[in-house]
Design goal:
Chain B: It comes from Chitinophaga fulva. Chain B: Belongs to the ABC-4 integral membrane protein family. Chain B: It is found in: Cell membrane. Chain B: This is FtsX-like permease family protein. The complex is a heterodimer of chains A (248) and B (406). Chain A is α/β, with parallel strands linked by helices. Chain A is built from 8 helices and 10 strands. With 406 residues, chain B is of the alpha+beta class. Chain B is built from 13 helices and 12 strands. In chain B, helix 1 crosses helix 11, helix 2 crosses helix 11 and helix 2 runs antiparallel to helix 12. The longest helix of chain B is centred in the last third of the chain and has 44 residues. Chain B starts with a helix and ends with a helix. The mean pLDDT of chain B is 84. The chains are: A alpha/beta (248), B alpha+beta (406). Chains A and B meet through helix 2 and helix 3 of A and helix 1, helix 10, helix 11 and helix 13 of B. Bound molecules: adenosine-5'-triphosphate and magnesium ion.
Amino acid sequence: MNSKILELQQIKREFIMGTETVRALKGVSFDVHAGEFVTIMGSSGSGKTTLLNLLGCLDKPTAGNYLLDGVDVGNLSRNELARLRNRKIGFVFQAYNLLPRTSALENVELPLFYNPSLSASERKDKAVKALEAVKLADRLDHTPSQLSGGQQQRVAIARALVNQPVMILADEATGNLDTRTSYEIMSLMQDLNKEGKTIVFVTHEPDIAAFSNRTVMLRDGKVVKDTVNENVRSAKEALESLPPADDY
Amino acid sequence: MSAINLVRIALRALQRNKLRAFLTMLGIIIGVAAVIAMVAIGEGSKESIQSQLSAMGSNMITILPSSNVSGGVRIEGASFQSLTIVDVKAIQKNAEHVSAVSPVSSTKGQAIYGALNWPTSLQGVAPSYFDIRKLEVADGVSFTDADVATAAKVCVLGKTVINNLFPSGESPVGKVIRLNSIPLQVIGTLVPKGQSSFGQDQDDIILTPYTTVQKRILATIYFQSIYASAVSEGTSAQATDEITEILRETHRLRPGDENNFQVRTMEELIKTLSSTSSLLTVLLTAIAGISLVIGGIGIMNIMYVSVTERTREIGLRMSVGARGVDILLQFLVEAIIISVTGGIIGVILGVTTAQVITLTLGWPTIVSESSIVLSFMVCALTGVFFGYYPAQAASRLDPIEALRYE
Ligand SMILES: Nc1ncnc2c1ncn2[C@@H]1O[C@H](COP(=O)(O)OP(=O)(O)OP(=O)(O)O)[C@@H](O)[C@H]1O
Ligand SMILES: [Mg+2]
């Protein structure tokens, strides 16, 4: 349980924009153990999304090593990376990235299409269960344009859960949600964490960070603080302590 | 990824963009249909010209006077006078491969009957001319060698002449018409032949013994042409050689002298004409080919746009685990579905168009298999190539780059 699932060693990521070089990450090193619930915090532009993309094997560092489950990701082929993203990682994008004109159900099914061991009915079962978990069971046939921002966010979360990954990476997954729904999502995350899934959750709300057991602070592409949260708040209790939903 | 999954993903993607898929298909449909219809028109007209010519008698041989060098001056063929009755008799007597021969001495004139008149062509021929040209008498009789011997004032009328001189429908047989002030008794009528493939009315004609024209109207001993029939289609080359030899003798040409006549077989004429209509086919095919190229460019454009527009989708699919090859196959299958469906509809539309043209305009059409195969292949391959190529480019991007694409 206490093995290192993620190891970051002096990770740098630079973007070359014509003659200028934007240094989004300037040497980030930290480890994440299996079963941890880590939040990454930092102000806008501090490099949170850039870091999470690297963790999700969507992007490659300019310099430094990234080990996932002890394997140096830099040495993997494109196909091996694709398989890794499909089976091990559930990614929630800051911008949702749902397929337009496609029902919620089909959007959630998408990762399963790239897993040949599943039959059509298994695929549908899993997708429906994932949507039930984010409380969207009654919106299976709705397309993204027929859903609110928060509902789209939840479809994106369902899509990240559907393949039962060992690790969930979420970029501001509660950014567009009201307090109650945010807490519901965090409660879901805590349940998933209890099942043994490792979670890395980007947010800039300290309120949300309180539900995790560790917080990494980024500033200007560098880790400035890495604290373990001694008394983790239970999202379920927080939900119960909210005033009952009024019928306004 | 399994084939079923692949087809399912592709079909769902097409369903999401029905209009775009249809527009892409439209380019292919029009390109394929245009080529098939155009080529069908070209081939059809070629075939019909050929069959009409064969109906005229494929073992027919024409002998025309021709310009040879006469004191260094070339004289126009028609005005050159070299064919006489001596030539006709010599051919009749000595050519083994010739079954029939007839001179032609023709003139233009105003045919008059009662108050009606009609400008037409008077052809002086021998009775054997009917066999050579496959002419048949409908009513009455044809003239005989005896009529030729006496330069009898008798004639056989073509349908157009009858229609204009005898509009009330009465039988012209036995009546006397006048042509260039010569009275001619109508002894027969011709079975109509209709228009020739050159657009000439073959029924606008009066036939009479050649002696009548030569002696009573033109006062000449020369003929405009001589028509002959080879014994069979296969012997027309030998017949031509024989005739050439005989005429060189009767014209007293020395070895090395140029012929002052031309001998033409129907076969040569058929060849010349089919090469002209082949040119027409080539021309139509070229036009169709251009429309195919334009259609192809349309396909390229839409395919290219549709793939680049979907770069984000590609990025998303890769980020949830699609490999480069999955993306490629998806777009390939989409392109194949669009191209093949469009191609099939195009073939159906092209064949139908050809039939509609035949039914409404009366143009003969022949749908050739090669045009179907060729146009189908060109469109399908264009579609597949230009669906595949940008997809391949996109599948090589990193997922995050593709997602960030605008
Ligand atoms: N593709 C790119 N090209 C150029 N610069 C980039 C690119 N991606 C990110 N950056 C730059 O890297 C820095 C970090 O960006 P990043 O998106 O990681 O910030 P963030 O912490 O997620 O911010 P936010 O809270 O607003 O989402 C920014 O200065 C940004 O402009
Ligand atoms: Mg961000």
